[in-house]
Amino acid sequence: MGTAGANGAMSDDELDLLHRYWSAANYLTVAQIYLQDNALLREPLRPEHIKPRLLGHWGTGPGLSLIYAHLNRLIRNTSAEVLFIAGPGHGGPSVVANVYLEGTYSEVYPDVSRDAAGMHRLARQFSTPGGVGSHVGPATPGSIHEGGELGYSLMHATGAVMDNPGLIAACVVGDGEAETGPLAASWTAPFFLNPVRDGAVLPILHLNGAKISGPTVLGRRSDEDVEALLHANGWEPVTVSGDQPGKVHRALSAALDNAYATIRDIQRDARDAGSGDTGTGSNRTRNRTTAARWPAIILRTPKGWTGPETVDGSPVEGTFRAHQVPLSGVKDDPEHLALLEQWMRSYQPESLFDDGGRLLPELAALAPEGRLRMGAAPWANGQPSVPLEIPDLVQYAVDPGRPGSTSVETTKPLGELFRDLYTGTEDNPRFRLFCPDETNSNRLGAVFEATDRCLLLPGHDGDDHVSADGRVMEVLSEHLCQGWLEGYLLTGRHGFFASYEAFAMVSASMTVQHAKWLQHARELAWRSPVPSLNILLTSTCWRNDHNGFSHQGPGLIDTVLSLSGEVTRIYLPPDTNTLLAAAEHALRSKDYVNLVVVDKQSHPQYLTLAEARAHAEAGASRWEWAGNENGSSAEPDIILACAGDIPTEEALAAAWLLQRHVPDATVRVVNVMDAMVLPPREVHPHGLDDGTFTSLFTDTGEVVVAWHGYARSFHQLLHGRPNPERFHVRGYSQQGTTTTPFDMVVLNRMSRYHLALEALSRMPRQFDGAQALADHCNQLLDAHAEYIREHFEDLPEIREWVWSPPGS
Amino acid sequence: MGTAGANGAMSDDELDLLHRYWSAANYLTVAQIYLQDNALLREPLRPEHIKPRLLGHWGTGPGLSLIYAHLNRLIRNTSAEVLFIAGPGHGGPSVVANVYLEGTYSEVYPDVSRDAAGMHRLARQFSTPGGVGSHVGPATPGSIHEGGELGYSLMHATGAVMDNPGLIAACVVGDGEAETGPLAASWTAPFFLNPVRDGAVLPILHLNGAKISGPTVLGRRSDEDVEALLHANGWEPVTVSGDQPGKVHRALSAALDNAYATIRDIQRDARDAGSGDTGTGSNRTRNRTTAARWPAIILRTPKGWTGPETVDGSPVEGTFRAHQVPLSGVKDDPEHLALLEQWMRSYQPESLFDDGGRLLPELAALAPEGRLRMGAAPWANGQPSVPLEIPDLVQYAVDPGRPGSTSVETTKPLGELFRDLYTGTEDNPRFRLFCPDETNSNRLGAVFEATDRCLLLPGHDGDDHVSADGRVMEVLSEHLCQGWLEGYLLTGRHGFFASYEAFAMVSASMTVQHAKWLQHARELAWRSPVPSLNILLTSTCWRNDHNGFSHQGPGLIDTVLSLSGEVTRIYLPPDTNTLLAAAEHALRSKDYVNLVVVDKQSHPQYLTLAEARAHAEAGASRWEWAGNENGSSAEPDIILACAGDIPTEEALAAAWLLQRHVPDATVRVVNVMDAMVLPPREVHPHGLDDGTFTSLFTDTGEVVVAWHGYARSFHQLLHGRPNPERFHVRGYSQQGTTTTPFDMVVLNRMSRYHLALEALSRMPRQFDGAQALADHCNQLLDAHAEYIREHFEDLPEIREWVWSPPGS
Questions:
Q1: CB of B153 less than 8 A from some CB of A
Q2: How many domains does chain B have?
Q3: Other C-beta atoms within 10 Å of B80: how many?
Q4: For chain A, what percentages of helix, strand and coil (3-state, to nearest 5) are there?
């Protein structure tokens, strides 16, 4: 496997120093979990030194610290740029201990200084209200990964190294996390990483054998079986195993040296050979390079290694009992207190720290320096990212002509913008599209004029735009698409995740966790803002008439609605130009989750680019041309509000029906493109001020709403607005099957006819023509029902009920 | 591998017959996708025979049909009970074709008869409005699996065979689905299936090489690599590969014969040896049986096999272009029409069906008979399930004494009920608990008095209740926990999935899809109702003060709120006895998703079991003892409503503060245990009638609400109720960190002091004592802020702010 280690085997002295460094990290881990005072243990341990609430996870800590210390050695020897990703993120105190030992922590948090006072604070702040939590997270320097919800470490590592040729992401995967679906799918990384242009992921699968209260699957399988599993996934694993520190130190350092050498060999060979591809578009020759077998390390050491072997007669070290706090009730139990003191003194703190609490110089020298320290990794801490230069949207814009008279596949021009973002960043690649095999289906296929789908597996003749050089990331996993993108964004690059709307729920929990990350990270001045997570929901519920009920679900809107308004945005562009304006804004923004919901099919176009920009800026506007107020200052008889492309189409048609049949009634159409203008400003910063809200919706006028999402979820947007009960909302109400597009809006009672009937029923008086229109609507709905029934036996044209533009 | 096939190799005659049967299935698949008339092709194909909208997935069909036909042979030869799970569920028409050919379809849907008229209808109904969708789903006889959202086939198969020793679940996994996280994690099934008491899963990984528009990872890997991957996951795979039907038929039939023989060998050996465990509780000896290496088949055949090889100069068969409809525009394109006719005639329909459209007898004889037909599998079609006998709850009930004076870990008695459900069903095992390694953490550990955690891997001495005989399913994957349970339920058994509240979002999309399945399945009279999916959310946002922000998220409530009220229930029991009542109801119910949200920590208890049952029945009740109306018929000055355990505790404390400090004001406390009583009945069948709603909340009185979930999501429950703007809701508002439990309610402004202040501000007049109470609340909140600040340096007791029961 590769060439020899960069600096040969460790000397006994080096081993001894490294072991003491590891001891210091373990000591500080225990101190954080247990101590509120006497952190240096310079006096006998007494109950008052013990925290009143013992929280935290010890079990994974020694393994994380061991790996961190050995990576320090590797970095020092090679000057490699390494990102540390702690899959077992609940091992927070050990990662903090290491970042503290290397000096980064005190630079970021000067109060936690590299002396006795700082060490006191380090211990005190952990698991203390307002202090430091037990998981690695935004507050941990050097981290791009929150360790609370397990499963995403390896995909974050993979995304981080894309277009990042110098970076090595060392990713510790716990054997608990390895049982999750998202992690299990992540092992395919080698088939999506190109050694020419991407960096390397070095997985370190840490098997300590147990979770909270039971064994792990991989922890109980043999070395051969676990090696076979990683090998079968395309890696070249080596196992380091043992419970004798000296032997493990030697074996792990050799394994890391070898892994590093192999990584560099792979990269050198690939880069010397070149990418094999320089052309673009159809002249491009496909690079059929297949995946490198990247090194991986399996580390099998006892859970809670160096901790108490037995407590109260039960084995602890090496078992699930070491998972959290191995010694409980220490404040009140003298025996446990003594055991804790014995445990802590086993690290010989006096041989690690001087009287002032400073790490001894010969140990401090083991950490890398400056930006090479993993806690100081610029990629992790949000070094200012290079903005995208976004081409003038005018070249993608659609000329709608008379509103509604032109139809366009709404997402297609966005694909052209994405294409040009790929080509425009060739010198400094920093944009990617991630999509579960649906790029073409979602009408974003123009990107393939600029690049290919990425796959480092043998090509076939029939392949369409698939190559090792491709940078469109398609894999049939929403988890991987989103997770790779998150890793890419958190290291300062830009992108979009495009998903069928319903299946974006697959990774909904990731969206929640990412929003939490951003909410927390924004509060940390030392973290630079990162490009936003942009989620494009296409193939929406309303136009999955062909795929049926399982493909119909606007639930991600609900999920995002409840998150913090500081970090979430929800856009429902009604047409192409508004979509372009929203996408431009999303790509320029930082620290948000931008949800953009729009269908991919051919839909009527309404606004010019200039109008679209103004509409996007306002978030919601009166569409004068669609109503008949003609500048009247009187309140309209009915307001039709709409949000989303299909709801807009139906609401416009309803407005047209009303004006045609009930000309005396005044109708206003309000289009809402930014859902978060609706709630009051204290709920969301986009919330309209009272005056603007009233200028759109009046204070007391009846409003019929056509809403893209679940009908009732809309009401949570309105609380705090005047007389919210006057809003009558139609939206997706969990009705659907394989049917026609128009039947979808009928089944969910959001059709133009339903909207017109609702509007008629809400008008202040019975206008001339109202009954005739009601009869007309009911007749058409009856005819539709008949049509659907008859359809089965005598199939007429499916799009018979296509919208007629207002004013035609 | 195992003994020889049950019936030896296929004769040439048998091969020819089987091939023709497969041809018939392929023919009917194409007919469904394309034809609205002339289904038997007894006249030349003309444009008017073609459907106006061509939908459906051809690519996976031939593979599914091949496997189905060969499984038919196996069943006929062995009388094995086989469940067919079509992972590539978008291959709906081919599964329908097979269920039709075997006769089940016509029994379930008599209109689709086994003759020319039925075949006409079979073709017409597919992808037609009101007809049959393109995915396998509830309407497909024999299916427990919807093929729309990919990833769950193998976990459904695994759950189906648990406690089902006679069953073989033959699970086709597509190479697209194999890229998903949930599927990737599912390969660990052998470590959770006990050959003594469980049935067998036979995975058939079908590699046709492509997805919608690109290659698959596994499709491009070598046979050796794919075999190594399955082998490394604990299976004994064999590859069947080719594009020559004769050879593939022979190889596949031999592979299935061998796999079947191996399965029976494994089962016989294991069952002859016995489980090695008959005791219970601490006397139980742990059965250390390790996993069998169950057979698996890798089938590599061309995508869209037997379809057009090339269309318009592009290769189709064997490429992504065969994924959906290989020939487009057939109605208008004479060349494509001719190609379609040629393709369909290649199956020689006249040699398959007689003039009346009936499958020729020698082919019909190839299907199994009666209940052994996979479409008629009783386990799949909801054979009436054996109800659980639920012990009298009185033995688990808590005596609360004076309300609020007793504290209990709320979920602990539920664990005792679960324990007794395990022991009470030993003769006919049909209850299991599924939980990601948190059974003890969630205080449900009493189950381990009855059984163990299940794991078929080597045991260690330090293990706590882990054995091969264990039937508590712990794996660190919410996907697997929920998916196994879904498979268990859909085959008629009972269970609970217990999850940390925040991480239930990981499998939220599965919850959506399962609710969709139930909603559809309920409409099908031939499907028996199935036990409900019971999801217990513990370790809730309010009491993840120790784990921090990532562990705090009540989002699954939002997700379930938007689903159909026909199939969803949301219970927020305030204490143990109400939890027991809710759990009993959930376990007895059918066809629901029951979300039960309750924290696991020690909390005050309020209601006796009788009161709890009445409260659960009502869904929401006035708690007279907590207010001071004393039977007055006047409207109270303020109503405090609460839903959820922590909100109840805070609201009760606020009520107590108000009564103590502002005795002249009348206060009503309403506890809502069933969230779905709040919306009008047209939204949810539990919706209170207007009179009852008014009797609780009046029509105009101000209501201060303490709500477990996201604060604003509550408002969607209220739309349609009188004057919804008078409800002032406090709930989780995405604020949290590692802190104290009380600080969590302060951060989210739901503390007793916030509630009291809000109540004071909403009262009809300024009562005596109001200002003093407001000052008191503000002082205490200031003191709390101080306390949190000080906490850091001088840690006082964390639970200083514990609730004082009202009236104390």
A1: no
A2: 3
A3: 20
A4: 40, 15, 45
Residue B262 lies in a domain: yes
Q: Which residue has tokens 């009915």?
A: A638
Minimal CA separation from A40 to chain B, in Å: 17
The angle at the Cα of B591, spanning B588 to B592, to the nearest 5 degrees, equals 80
The arithmetic mean of pLDDT across residues B149-177, rounded, is: 98
Touching check for A454 and chain B: CB below 8 Å?
no
Contact A541, A552 (CB under 8 A): yes
CATH number for B691? 3.40.50.920
Asked whether A582 and A573 are in contact (CB, 8 A), the reply is: yes
Name the percent of chain B in helix, strand, coil, to the closest 5: 40, 15, 40
Instruction: Let me know if residue A646 belongs to a domain.
Output: yes
SS3 B756: helix
Are B437 and A211 a contacting pair at CB < 8 A?
Answer: yes
Whole-angstrom distance, CA of residue B657 vs CA of residue B661: 6
What is the spatial distance between Cα A521 and Cα A515, in angstroms, rounded to a whole number?
A: 10
Convert A216-249 into a string of H (helix), E (strand) and C (coil).
CCHHHCCHHHHHHHHHHCCCEEEEEECCCHHHHH
What's residue A7's pLDDT? 52
B401 in the same domain as B295:
no
Q: Tell whether A330 and A462 lie within a shared domain.
A: no
In chain B, the percentage of residues whose pLDDT exceeds 90 is: 87
Taking the C-alpha atoms of residue A450 and residue A463, their distance in angstroms, rounded to an integer, is 16
Measure CB to CB from residue A798 to each of B53, B319, B719 and give the nearest one.
B53
Instruction: Give residue B284's pLDDT.
Output: 58
Query: Residues A290, A455: contact at Cβ < 8 Å?
Result: no
CATH number at residue B199: 3.40.50.970
How near does any CA of chain B get to the CA of A755, in Å?
18
Residues A83 and A188 in one domain: yes
Q: pLDDT (tens digit, 9 = 90+) per residue, A57-81? A: 999 999 999 999 999 999 999 999 9
- Judge if B358 and B400 occupy the same domain: no
Facing B512 at nearest CB: one of A53, A512, A553: A553
Backbone angles phi and psi of B209, in degrees to 5:
95, -15
**C-alpha–C-alpha distance, residues B356 and A285, integer Å:** 55
Assess whether B783 and B726 both reside in one domain.
yes
ipTM for this model: 0.96
Measured in degrees and rounded to the nearest 5, phi and psi for residue B212 equal: -60, -45
Q: Which of B542, B547, B183, B506 lies closest to A511, judged by CA? A: B506
A461 touches chain B (CB under 8 A): yes
Distance, C-alpha B111 to centroid of its chain: 32
Dig out the tokens for A345 from the structure. Answer: 């003194």
Residue A533, domain extent: 393-604
The region that residue B222 occupies, defined by phi over 0 for left and psi between -120 and 50 for alpha, beta otherwise, is: beta
Confirm whether B381 is domain-assigned: no
Asked if B509 lies within 8 A of A512 by C-beta distance, the reply is no
Cβ contacts of B184 on chain A, cutoff 8 Å = 181, 184-185, 187
Residue of B670, B640, B605, B644 whose CA lies nearest to B744: B644
Cβ of B728 under 8 Å from any chain A Cβ? no
Chain B contact probe: residue of A111, A186, A433, A457 with most B CBs at under 10 A: A457
Q: Select from A550, A578, A604 the last residue of a domain.
A: A604
Closest CA to B674 of B784, B589, B758, B752: B589
| Residue B46 in tokens | 């003309």
- Residue A659's SS3 state is helix
Q: What is the pLDDT of residues B498-532, one digit of tens each?
A: 999 999 999 999 999 999 999 999 999 999 999 99
Residues of chain A in contact with residue B509, where contact means CB-CB under 8 angstroms, are 503, 505-506, 508, 555
B631: contact with A, CB 8 A cutoff: no
Q: Report the C-alpha gap between A601 and B301 in whole angstroms.
A: 33
